[in-house]
């Protein structure tokens, strides 16, 4: 299994991307920003296809689109009064734009087929080159380092923004910075598991960890471990059973972990209630 | 693909000639008929969905429609079967989940996110097992208006009619229960049964809409017209009619534009629907001031 270069690249990129998703995802779940993650995955699709349609490197489109929109979400914040209805309408339109770029791409090149869209939507972790894998690992390490560096104030701001603000924690700035990191990780993970399955890697391991861990730092570590484990198991399974796409296998493992965690929590509920009560909302 | 006959002359800017050309092909007539059925159903059900703030349920059902359809394709069943089966099952599951609403919002949305991603992954697996290839994937996700068969049109029309009749029957109590659930319950309205019935209706509407707009663009017809209508008027009957009207206009225009251009219908329908919504919001903002 390790003899193949594509497998080594996939493991290198997948391990670090998974860890970054686990760490960032834990904060996403804590801060109840799953919808922001959902939004960014839609944007990632359109950004990548826009880049493809205009002949730019996919990664430029991915990072530019997700980070710009992440900052936009943070900047508008609550003030815009965006509800589910507005968000849903905007997302449908953003995806519609993505379809337009896809059409431009396929009509511009007579050889064009649906592969570009499939790569963006469902990822192509086995198709990463060595340099791409190294870049993915580097970006992920940077994202993890950024998250850990401000983990303490960010946790504080996530649990109780009012008290944190009163204590002089720059809550708004932290939120903005967090969304920027989330955008970066979303762009990176899109290449591994795809825009549509990104939410699985972001939300499922973190939600599982959130149900099991007794304190936030343990939760962070557990979430990262779950995500990396999901990537490893998924890649291994997909290697053995080639008809199953790697991204499907990864997300399936993550979902199974989540369901198992929910089951464990239910059977051990009284013991864990104390930490649950300390968790806001 | 569709520019293969002498009939196609491009846009002439002569409205009558353009319309005549639009309905000259059977496939286009089928598309318009199916689009009409879907737009009416989605406009009416979507109005209630927006009123009841169940857009997230609609989104989840739409995502579930994708593996349903892909699985049906893999098993050799008609796609419509997969769409409706998966959405009905999803609606029942959602009703079950919301019945024991104990978890907090953050936990619930994380769980839903995980389930959605899993459903999409499952759909991708079915498509890649099927080898029926990538064009099929595009159609499932982003819709197609080419190659809608007569049978599909009939199925959609029957489903739409049945759903609309059901909606007309439960409309009044449903409105009551949607606006003030507690009072409705006190007045003896079966709120629980109604919400289950509505989720099933929503499932059917989503399944029907998916076949035209694809699983990912369902919101264009389900949410945008209804949201625009509710920006314009708060009166139920007018709002419903307006929502249906906007849905119809958006669908017809979108299909026509797609016919005369090289770009996909999904893009035009989503863009038009979004534009109507934005205009309605801005108009409401200026009127208020």
Structural class of chain A: mainly alpha
CATH topology of chain A: ABC transporter involved in vitamin B12 uptake, BtuC
CATH hierarchy class name of the domain at 27-98 and 106-217 in chain B: Mainly Alpha
Beta-strand content of chain B: under 5%
Shape of chain A: globular
Mean pLDDT of chain A: 82
Mean pLDDT of chain B: 82
Low-pLDDT residue intervals, each spanning 5 or more residues of chain A? none
Largest sheet of chain B: none
Work out the number of β strands of chain A: 0
E-strand count of chain B:
0
Give me the CATH architecture of the domain at 27-98 and 106-217 in chain B, please: Orthogonal Bundle
Q: What count of domains describes the coordinates of chain A?
A: 1
Low-confidence stretches of chain B: 1-7, 100-104
Description:
The complex is a heterodimer of chains A (281) and B (289). Chain A has 281 residues and is mostly helical. Chain A has helices at residues 5-30, 34-53, 58-76, 84-108, 115-122, 130-149, 151-159, 161-166, 171-193, 198-212, 216-240, 246-267, 269-278. In chain A, helix 2 (34-53) packs parallel to helix 4 (84-108), helix 2 (34-53) runs antiparallel to helix 5 (115-122) and helix 11 (216-240) packs across helix 12 (246-267). The radius of gyration of chain A is 19 Å and the shape is globular. Chain B is mostly helical. Chain B has a domain at 27-98 and 106-217: ABC transporter involved in vitamin B12 uptake, BtuC. Chain B has helices at 15-22, 26-51, 55-75, 79-99, 105-130, 134-142, 150-179, 181-186, 191-213, 218-222, 224-232, 236-260, 265-288. In chain B, helix 2 packs antiparallel against helix 12, helix 3 (55-75) packs parallel to helix 5 and helix 11 (224-232) packs parallel to helix 13. Chains A and B meet through helix 2, helix 4, helix 5, helix 10 and helix 12 of A and helix 3, helix 5, helix 6, helix 10 and helix 13 of B.
